[in-house]
Amino acid sequence: MPQQDTLKERRGQSLDQLKNLLKTRTATLALFSQLAAKRPFKPEPVVQELLQEFCESLVDYTAIAHFQLYRHFQGGRERRQPVVAIAEQVYHRIADTTAQILDFNDKYDCGDHCDDLGGLADDLSRLGEVLADRINLEDRVIAALRGAQR
Q: Which helix H or strand E contains 30, and what residues bound it?
């Protein structure tokens, strides 16, 4: 019985991590939409503050996915082989999106001193494609986790 309790606890922690990931992802996408609606981008305080808030949320979302969910797999804590197989299939592609997200953040995480927003529209458009790819990959892992818990 104790082993079954441990298993339930581990799976409960995975579900909590998924819920946190989805909550943070949703908040990030909402900020992405709000920021995109500010086109054409001008170095005005409202745009700069929204950009900063978006960058913070973007990094939080990326970190949650990487440090909570994927560490779960890297640490060998996932024993369900169908879930492990999907995670291994998509992990390198998710890592690529992480690098692109961090590049965007490095360029635009600037608080209230962003004056050069000339490339933001194009960069935001490319980031939108990166996020769409990442979400599709994450959703494959999430579906495997949920399917394996039935």
A: helix 2-36
